[in-house]
Amino acid sequence: MSRELYEHCLRTSKFAGELARRFDVEVDKAERAGLLHDFCKEWPIPTQLAAARRLGLWTREFEAQPKVLHGPLAARVLPEELGEADPAVLSAVARHTTGAPGMSRLDMVVYLADMLEPARDFPGADELRASLGGRLETAMLRALEHTLHHLIDRGAWIHPDALLARNDLLRFRE
Ligand SMILES: [Fe+2]
Ligand SMILES: [Fe+2]
Questions:
Q1: Residue 15 Cα, ligand 1 centroid: separation in angstroms?
Q2: Between the CA of residue 57 and those of 60, 102, 160, what are the distances in Å?
Q3: How far is residue 135 from each of residues 88, 102, 110, 119, measured CA to CA in Å?
Q4: Which CATH number do you get for residue 129?
Q5: CB within 8 A of 27, min separation 6: which ones?
Q6: Domain count, the chain
Q7: Domain carrying residue 156
Q8: Centre of ligand 1 from the C-alpha of residue 127, in Å
Q9: Most CB atoms within 10 A, among 16, 108, 130, 137?
Q10: Spatial contact of 89 and 104, defined as CB atoms under 8 Å apart
Q11: How far apart are the first and last CA of the chain?
Q12: What residues flank ion ligand 2 with Cβ within 5 A?
């Protein structure tokens, strides 16, 4: 992995640990998921798609938006590649790219740490960071809605899991 991505993973791990402490989630799992979440991100897209086919993970949605495949793919290869077999950690790794309905609090911590680690400086990042002072689920809903707005503004294709995740999180709207 490139130095740039490696450093992002270190920052994500550290921030995931901080958020885990804040929201009473298992800190070591959050740190591990943060460190591992982008394990497959720099694999060439054709390699990722081929691996997904081989592992029975391929869907039309991933073909349409291969950028989100590296989460689910990492969750499938990490047990063999690095011996990470904790289902809760693998779930957080899998779900960091799109979110999913029924996310665990660990899933949310890792999604938010990836999106809001200190080097992230997209417009609106500081407002989202401020929402981390409230309820975890509400911060997750705001972050996901921010992502969806951004994708729509760019005319991008949206993975259905991201929409399902957002609808599921509406329970937590304040
Ligand atoms: Fe990622
Ligand atoms: Fe990431």
A1: 15
A2: 10, 20, 15
A3: 21, 16, 15, 23
A4: 1.10.3210.10
A5: 17, 20, 21
A6: 1
A7: 3-172
A8: 21
A9: 16
A10: no
A11: 40
A12: 38, 114
